[in-house]
Amino acid sequence: MASITTEEIRSSADKQPTDPDAGRPPICGELVTIPTSVAMTAVRYASRPVIDPTEIRNVRCTLQAHPTGDHYGFIVDTAEATSAWTRWNENAGPEIVLVLPDCPATDPEQNAACSEYESHGGGHTWQVDDPWDPAAHEQ
Question: What is the number of other CB atoms lying within 10 angstroms of the CB of residue 82?
């Protein structure tokens, strides 16, 4: 997964979905820069042999938009069917790495797996609109 720069997120914050009739709720999109210590911890769990922690500095909450509660951001794939995530909220920044099982749900129409963690809140990846995901808006 490529790192997302703060400028890319901010410049696309007003981007609207390609299909305005999709009717899918938006993702949260809350952006955070993770501390080097969190990035280095996540790299220890990574499934790829070599990852530079500076490549994974900016993460965003891809859960369905939520007015309260914690934000969760994907950091890196770990072992088969698990990924490293971080969590933060309005009172505390990301200070922890959580290795969570992948959501087992699969889009029945496209046979694509959900990109969130197991038991996440809100809709599955294919049920929410992510304006930063070009694949979701291909015509």
Answer: 17
